[in-house]
């Protein structure tokens, strides 16, 4: 049968979004398309809660959005602080190093977060230009609280860059209120659009930092100098050209952001929290452990779950697939085959998670884990009633 995609991106898309991908491709300067691109940029500001922010939409994956923030804000020799809660913190370190930053990494133990005291202590050591953190690290399912970090960044006059690839439109975000300088994501996660768009909103302070650079941005494609006039033109509903935009992906983005904002972003976030909380309780009810060490910092967009002793990763996921549910394996190299990940974001529903839990119970019993069948389903449904 048709398999249900329950990985942390790409996710299952709304039919209207998928249909937008198949619309006859128009010119990137056709009036209708200019209107759609402009709408998508306006809607991003609503979803990010960044009325004063500057949105950028560029063809590429989430890694390009990370690269773009680093390329435009870092000059060789600048100090950068990476607050790492998993795989994607390490990626940010590698990107920043490429641009000649002097990088310090604060690395949390697996499933843990870095304390604010530790971050503040580090910010006192030298004048950092920029700090990065991962809102939800997709390798661990650890959720970091953005507001206190953004406040610390302001206190020490450091730019704050949030990797929101696994959080934007799934976790609470208030970019302007919190004073985050860059919030970036990719299309294929909670934003609900096929892979291929790098999405980023920059604060006025970030743009000023870029404008005051003494050196050229050492990356031609990512240079805001090339893209800022294009984004402004679409926002003003005027034609422009730098690099041909992925027309159908942008139509799909407009469609998905309209669905998200008409449902209401607050309602959307609350749905993620409700389903994720019930899902975590359900897996705990048969003795499974999740990677985050504390429920207070467990993400609502995905859950990373350790296998019980004896259950083999390949065998488990094959049994899941036989039941038409695709989940992801581990991503942290150190512990890759010891856990699996379930994405539950975007258009995910209660029925998707009921089907997933049912398949998890089947796969676990096939691979030799003993528990009372039906327990996770009972827990999940009781929690949601
Ligand atoms: N950051 C996070 C938190 C992610 O989850 C991902 C993708 N899994 C990325 C960055 C990189 O995005 P992409 O794969 O689209 O380049």
In short:
The protein has 2 domains: 4-8 and 265-384, Aspartate Aminotransferase, domain 1 (Alpha-Beta Complex), CATH 3.90.1150; 15-263, Aspartate Aminotransferase, domain 2 (3-Layer(aba) Sandwich), CATH 3.40.640. 43% of the residues lie in helices and 15% in strands.
Entry keywords:
14 helices, alpha/beta, 7-stranded mixed sheet, 3-stranded antiparallel sheet, 385 residues
Written account of the structure:
By secondary structure, the protein is of the alpha/beta class. It folds into two domains: 4-8 and 265-384, Aspartate Aminotransferase, domain 1, CATH 3.90.1150; 15-263, Aspartate Aminotransferase, domain 2, CATH 3.40.640.10. The chain has helices spanning 15-22, 31-48, 62-73, 87-98, 116-123, 146-155, 175-178, 204-211, 224-235, 247-263, 265-284, 313-322, 350-366, 375-384, and strands spanning 4-5, 54-59, 79-84, 102-107, 130-134, 136-137, 142-143, 159-163, 182-186, 197-202, 302-306, 325-326, 328-329, 339-343. The strands form four sheets. Strands 2-10-9-8-5-3-4 form a seven-stranded mixed sheet, with helices on both faces. Strands 11-14-13 form a three-stranded antiparallel sheet, with helices on one face. The structure holds 4'-deoxy-4'-aminopyridoxal-5'-phosphate. 4'-deoxy-4'-aminopyridoxal-5'-phosphate binds at residues 9, 61-63, 88, 134, 137-138, 163, 165-166, 186.
